[in-house]
Write a structure and sequence with these properties.
The chain is an all-alpha fold. It is built from 12 helices and 2 strands; from the N terminus they run αααααβαααβαααα. α1 (about 1-30) packs antiparallel against α10 (about 215-260). It is elongated, with a radius of gyration of 33 Å. The two termini are about 30 Å apart.
Length: about 350
Amino acid sequence: MRTAASILILSILVPCTLVVFLVSSVKANVLTAEFIKHELAAQKVYTIAEDQASQQIAKMKFENLPINAADLQTLVQRVLPASWLQMNIESTLDRTFAWFNGPSDATLALPIDLRGPKSELLPGVDALIAAAIPRLPVCQRHQKEGELCRTTGMSVAQVKDLLKQGGIDVATVTTQLPDEIDLANPVLPTIKLGNAADPEKEAPPTQDTKSEQTTSVPDQAKNIVAQMTNAKEIYHQVLGYWNDALIVFGVLVLGYLAINAKGWRRITRWTGILTLTLGFLPLAVSVASKVVMEKYLLPSMHFTSDIPAAVQTAVPAAIRDFQHALFSTTLLVSAVMVAFGVVAIVGAHFIPARKPATSKK
């Protein structure tokens, strides 16, 4: 009867143990801000993003403007460097995960510090203008009104004054941009590069303008936060069920040990059988996952020619890191369980069998 009950419990615990190992590994090693931050940095995602932005700028055409793609690329890299992008994304990840695992009534706040980009914006624009001055056409006697041209000894300040007269005052950007913006509840300023627009020249709002206002950036952010809030509630509910499942799992293990608590030889042997059996499946899955990944999954991946080479390198590397993070702890713990189980089963044979109790006459 004890043996049959032990086998029944074992048949339930074996698949449950694999689930416990994998879910615990995902929760502790994969779905964490640390893992995501490490992957973003390790796969050079910030550099890839910067390169992609430069490539998109290189495709732009600047008609009637004395600037080129290289000037704009330099400006973007100066104002929004990869280091600033990494710092703010990592801060956002930390705050998001802390909120997700925090109390249900906590408010999500994702502030982004814009003081660094603002401090580099005007010097960057000045450098762009300085590089563009030699490319300006020389002013002629019959120059068209409003046409930007170059005079002898023309300075950056003079170009900025001419732009300001044309309604483009780049200096106002730094004063109108906020020092901080909350991605979870963004309040976007209305930036005017020049003087106030002439009311008579302002076009009345069209239907298209009204429809765009209904899907503005703040509204999109609110929708995303609402979806995240719903996901957070579901996550905490599932987490509660998971904790209950762990309790049931522990009760089954204790029940198994209680059934076999009859003499040191039996309890040692059946404890060894327990750890060996429960550790074997996670061990096998951990080893098989690496084989499947290297022999079947990664070789079957094909990238089109329009995918950047850096992305083609980063994706397989990220998959390998994911597999390692998911199964490394499982592989170690299950291997120890199997080894302990073998030692316990073998060692049980050296423990004297329990002598049957003799009745007194």
